[in-house]
Write a structure and sequence with these properties.
seven-stranded mixed sheet; binds pyridoxal-5'-phosphate; Aspartate Aminotransferase, domain 2; four-stranded antiparallel sheet; alpha/beta; 3 domains
Length: about 450
């Protein structure tokens, strides 16, 4: 879409009816200042036009916060996470979180584990991938021509980015129909002496299933005894890292498994921290090569840093620590149990409509529900559009190759999504289906006119 270029350099003033009678600047900073109240109103007007984030059923990221979190974010607004000399207590909170999370993930030496906060799981995944690449280089001493590869199950796009940005061949297993996680034996078929590691996901983005990391460990043990090649595992626990320890503690996926060398998770997803924080944790110091760590002294003091960003806000880290204090293990368990109860309720209701095949019901894996149209008798893209009229934003998407002909919808249950909201959503879903059934000829967007089932 082409934007009409409007140069507006004049002062913005509010008219008596509380409106501004000028088109707002979009391409150049206005020449003069405006009243802060006017600027605030105009900016908030734009934000108002976004959907309601709590009705966004697509995102894994938290959309509900304690009022105390808002207070912490306000008091920490000026704190830069990188200035560890100037804000040693924010740095201390980060350290404490690293150790608490390492302990939660079964680290054999949680009090001395090495790790860092990041802006989210994507950055944490890049750091995990880089450490594996450096360790591969140190172990194999490539003489040129060898291309490092990373073998994975179905992964989130951050791993595609990692592979492209850092020159690693991505060997991502195809998504077989009816099976939503990777098969460890199939993983082995793609491993060789240039494999820097295997990534498995605890709670895939597509269906929320946990991959079987314990079986993967056994398979890689067999591989090592046959080929004398030692391959580490990185677990992408973006969402599951703060779900499984509270709901499914018997599942071994973390540092209790000796091959798991690093783990990433998003504090801003089920860690319940506000947007902008992730965690990367290594099994021990030997898993994070020294030459990836930069020491800088220009902030005062000698600061080791291993991160893609330099400056970033410290408030999210402080809020993560607040949540650990506020909720404790018991509180996280309660929150997660409630979310799973909501997912079970939703999946039962969705099954009872007899129009959908439920692919994941939240009873195992992440607290989310994924479904597809049983007989392809309802256009899911159109259903999403219809639900928008009730404010609900429900994502419709295709599964990755080789199941790209399967169109699914997904509700991610997050803190703040109550059983009452789940009921309201089901009412809106029923009404939307009734509307579509009663109006079969209503126009749909051109790209979805075939029902949106093949892409
Ligand atoms: C499995 C997985 N890995 C990584 C990411 C990227 O996380 P972030 O948005 O925190 O960068 C996501 C996001 O949904 C995810 O589901």
């Amino acid at each position: 879409m082409l934007h009409k270029k409007v140069q507006n350099t004049g002062n913005l003033t509010v008219q008596p009816s509380n409106t501004v009678d000028k088109e707002l600047p979009k391409f150049a900073i206005p020449a003069t200042q405006s009243d802060p109240k006017v600027a605030l109103q105009l900016t908030e007007d734009e934000l108002m036009l976004d959907g309601n984030s709590r009705q966004n059923l697509a995102t894994f990221c938290g959309t509900w916060n304690d009022t105390e979190v808002v207070e912490i974010m306000t008091s920490a607004i000026g704190k830069n996470m990188i200035d560890k000399d100037e804000y040693p207590h924010t740095a201390e909170l980060e350290e404490r979180c690293v150790h608490m999370i390492a302990d939660l993930w079964g680290s054999p030496s949680a009090a001395s584990t090495i790790g860092t906060s990041t802006t989210g799981s994507s950055e944490a995944a890049m750091l995990g991938g880089l450490a594996m690449k450096w360790r591969w280089k140190a172990a194999r001493k490539p003489t040129g021509g060898q291309v490092p590869n990373l073998v994975t199950g179905p992964v989130q796009v951050c791993w595609h980015k990692f592979a492209r940005y850092f020159d690693v061949e991505l060997r991502e297993l195809p998504f077989h129909r009816g099976s939503y996680i990777s098969d460890p034996n199939e993983i082995l078929e793609h491993c060789d002496e240039n494999t820097i590691g295997v990534v498995n996901t605890l709670g895939t983005t597509f269906t929320g299933h946990y991959e079987n990391i314990e079986d993967l460990e056994h398979a890689l043990d067999d591989f090592q005894s046959q080929h004398d090649i030692d391959i580490p595992i990185h677990v992408d626990a973006a969402s599951g890292g703060f779900v499984a320890p509270f709901l499914d503690p018997e599942i071994k996926w973390d540092f209790r498994l000796k091959r798991v060398s690093s783990i990433n998770a998003s504090g801003h997803k089920y860690g319940l921290a506000p947007l902008g924080v992730g965690w990367a944790i290594w099994r021990d110091e030997s898993h994070l090569p020294e030459d990836l760590i930069f020491n800088v002294n220009y902030l005062g003091g000698e600061m080791p840093t291993f991160a893609l960003n330099f400056s970033r806000p410290g408030g999210q880290v402080a809020a993560q620590y607040y949540n650990f204090l506020r909720l404790g293990v018991d509180g996280y368990q309660r929150v997660m149990r409630n979310l799973r109860t909501c997912a079970e309720y939703l999946s039962n209701e969705i099954k009872s409509l007899e129009r959908f095949e439920v692919i994941s019901d939240g009873r195992t894996g992440l607290p989310l529900v994924t479904w597809t149209s049983s007989n392809r008798d309802i256009d899911l893209y159109r259903l999403s559009n219809q639900l928008r009229s009730y404010g609900w934003q429900l994502p419709t998407y295709t599964l990755p190759p080789d199941s790209q002909d399967v169109v699914v919808q997904r509700v991610v249950i997050r803190q703040g999504f109550t059983l009452e909201l789940a009921r309201q959503f089901i009412d809106a879903l029923r009404s939307s289906i009734d509307y579509i059934d009663a109006n079969p000829m209503s126009p749909t967007a051109p790209e979805h006119q075939n029902g949106g089932f093949s892409h």
